[in-house]
Amino acid sequence: MSTKKKITFIIIALLVANLGVLSFMMLKPNHRNPNGGRFGENGPKQRMIKRLDLNEEQSKTFTDLVETHQKAVIVYDEKIRNDKQELFSLLSEEVTSPSTVDSLTTNIAAYQKEIEVLHFNHFKNVKSLCKGDQVEKFNKLSKDLCKMFDQKRGKPMMRKEKREKKE
């Protein structure tokens, strides 16, 4: 086989492989894991349900609270993303107005503050679901909430919980 034919064959094979991967990605159903959202059984939602020992009715209400909370946070996340995009687009300009930079960063900070207030109120609502000894479990869990939901440090928290299970 000549070099030209080999190269043509390799190019065709790569194109077919790329089309196959793209088809798989486009046709694959995009649905959430029924056992706990995008994280599955080891996600924060399922870990909270287990650690708080929520009953079926509480779990349903908790799931509804989580969905409502996530929708509210997404609104502010989008606003932050848009303002950050506008802020960073200023880098391509020769001269930028300090007041524009200040305005955008102030908006971003205000949106982030709103997200933190949403988080706080969400967990107050979760606590109100708890009955009896679940309140004490929630109070203990509340010390770990920041670690549980910190995307950058989520893995160490999961390792800690695995160690606790072994003990």
Could you walk me through the main structural features you see in this protein, from its secondary elements to its overall organization?
The chain is mainly alpha-helical and 167 residues long. It has two domains: 30 residues; 129 residues, Four Helix Bundle (Hemerythrin (Met), subunit A) (Up-down Bundle), CATH 1.20.120.1490. It has seven helices and no strands. α3 packs antiparallel against α4. About 8% of the residues have low confidence.
Give the biggest beta sheet: none
Radius of gyration, Cα only, in angstroms? 24 Å
Query: Can you tell me the CATH architecture of the largest domain?
Result: Up-down Bundle
Instruction: Indicate the low-confidence ranges by residue numbers.
Output: 31-36, 153-159
Q: What is the fold named in CATH at topology level of the largest domain?
A: Four Helix Bundle (Hemerythrin (Met), subunit A)
Strand content: under 5%
Helical content (DSSP H or I, runs of 4+) = over 70%
Order of helices and strands: HHHHHHH
Q: What number of domains? A: 2
| Cα distance spanning the termini | 64 Å
Q: What does the overall shape look like?
A: flat
Structural class: mainly alpha
> Could you tell me the mean pLDDT?
84
CATH class of the largest domain: Mainly Alpha
Q: Care to count the β-strands?
A: 0
Question: How many DSSP helices?
Answer: 7
Transmembrane segments: 7-27
Keywords: Membrane, Transmembrane, Transmembrane helix
Protein name: Heavy-metal resistance
